[in-house]
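Hi everyone,

Forwarding the result from last night's run.
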Amino acid sequence: MTYPKLINKDLKNNSFEYDGGDLWVREDVSFWDDQEICWNSDIVDFIKNTNNIRNFLWKINYTIPYAIQIDGLGPNQEYKVKKDNKFFSKNVEFNSTNLNIISDVLLFEPKLISDFINKLDGLKKVNISINSMEPSVFDIEEDNWIKDGLKNPNWEIAMFDPADPNDLNDIKFIRKNIDPSIKFDFIHLGKTELEILKDHSII
């Protein structure tokens, strides 16, 4: 089976839910590649063909084993999936006045992101954070477990960094092309990075 697979497209609620498969059974999974497939297959067309958005959800479901479940198994060998092996990444969610997005989304074309933001009815604030699987229950840092423990060397999450000229130029473009009253909150950034954003009138 090819992943990610769209399993729930609810245009009444503007919801796109994908099955990303199992991060042990699949071979060398790239989170970025998974997002790009979703983006190019469905999300871009939705943005281009929708004028007014009152709510929105884009999430990818994954199953992730614990170490004890795959102890002694060969690479990519199937195990018994239980309820507590089910996790998800909530890439974008818009409810009421708040847009929550993960940093990875900022790697996409800034004009499309600006267009999307401009179509969100009642938006007042954009919250940007690094991706974290939900629910968060791992004893070790989850990305290390996915990358090293589950043998997915290409698994990476993006971290928006305004010290990077490309990241800064992208967010400046977005800021310039949306309603100036919309606030930004970069949840994962430290004092130095936030000062850069203040110097460029992003926040």
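The chain is about 30% helix and 25% strand.

Cheers,
N.
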